[in-house]
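Encode chain A's predicted structure.
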Amino acid sequence: MFNERIGLAVQGGGTRGVFAAGVLDVLQEQGISFPAVYGTSAGSLCLANFLSGDLGRSRYIICTLMGDPRFVSVRNRIFRGTVFDFDYLFYEIPKSESPFDFAAFNDNKTRFGIVTTSLEDGGMKVFYKGQTPDPFKALAASSSLPLLSRPVYVEGDPYLDGGPACSVPFAPGFSDGYEKMVVIATRPIGFRKKGIKRLSARLAKSMYKQYPAFIKTYLHSPHIYNESMDELDRLEKEGKVFRLCPETSSKVGVAEKDEKKLEALYAQGREVALKRLADLEGFLS
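Encoded structure for chain A:
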């Protein structure tokens, strides 16, 4: 099923993105596609596998690799400046235990917007596959969580996770001219963020002191998120958005390593997608 007027946006949330992985696997199994997709953080990683047609790969990456010290470790933080080794994720894993169909990904004509936060101006920056020399650099930037990762340079400028500036990227879809959006959120309806913790604020001010605009965005990110959710609620009531999200809050953390918890959240994503499949098909028709 395909509607040229309706795009797809996928929230990240670190390892909570495994919920989106479950939803996307069901969409792929049902032959549902979109003219344009937009992802933030883990949402962009899951979308890359969705576009390559690698069913189940996002589940493997999140559920299995989070326990692999080659990908996530304090050692990486000490020697690489980042907890996550994205070189291992993007350039080694695809050639070994979890193949990635680069040809299918490159040939896919779907417009793919990868959402990041600029350290220079603190604003949202969307990189589009086919318009940036190395989309995997943009994917690494989009998934580089503040305080846990060093900045990733894309086209010569520093970026981090898209979450602080645009956690749920439905706005770029509307800006690109799509009339409606399907939104995969990784938090339940009604969830709102509290303020940044004092320790996190102090760390951010120390780590990114040369980027005052980014610090401002990071410190205000809960407010930015909450305003975005208010807008999403309004658009959903107007019939412009179809939201797929967890029905209850999850105890899965942003960098969860408990495989059982991750598998349960993946299963919940599949369950929600299957439960609402008929309604989704009606929205897309």
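The chain has one domain: 6-284.
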